[in-house]
Write a structure and sequence with these properties.
By secondary structure, this protein is an alpha+beta fold. It has 5 helices and 5 strands; from the N terminus they run αααβαββαββ. It has one domain. The two termini are 26 Å apart. The structure holds zinc ion.
Length: 144
């Protein structure tokens, strides 16, 4: 489960907003304010997965209605090389929840073959104990 908003420091929330300013991430937040309200950690993956996330939002909008307040996105992150999109859709009908789950499974498969850095075709790489999906040009991860 995601950490409730009140446990995140206001300074960290400000940093996330600063980092997102002027990027596709900020645009998604403006388009889907209800869905991204609880996305306090920001979009935790590289720009190579940008179109995957943008298309997931667009397809979820088709399934449940754009920015339907009955749904919240809690986290979107790369974790051991996999694409994770955590939502609370418990207030939605079962048929919509099933469609959402199917769409997120599809996104996970797609991300598994897409370089997280640049979006070109890639594969799961283990580099110094870190797993990530990369094309040949981005196999070696820059440790930050
Ligand atoms: Zn790449």
């Amino acid at each position: 489960m995601a950490t409730p908003l009140d446990e995140i420091s206001p300074q960290y929330l400000t940093e996330v907003r600063e980092r997102e300013r002027g990027t596709w991430r900020e645009k998604l937040r403006k388009r889907y304010p209800n869905w991204t309200k609880q996305l306090q950690w920001g979009f935790e993956h590289g720009d190579g997965w940008r179109t995957i996330t943008e298309r997931v939002f667009a397809d979820l909008a088709t399934i449940v209605g754009t920015d339907n307040p009955e749904m919240e996105v809690h986290q979107i992150k790369a974790k051991v090389g996999t694409y994770n999109f955590y939502i609370d859709a418990s207030h939605l009908p079962a048929v919509q929840r099933a469609a959402i789950e199917a769409r997120l499974t599809e996104a996970n498969s797609e991300a598994g073959a897409t370089c997280e850095t640049c979006g070109r075709p890639g594969q799961l790489i283990r580099d110094r104990g870190w797993y990530h999906v990369a094309c040949p040009a981005h196999e070696v991860r820059d440790i930050q």
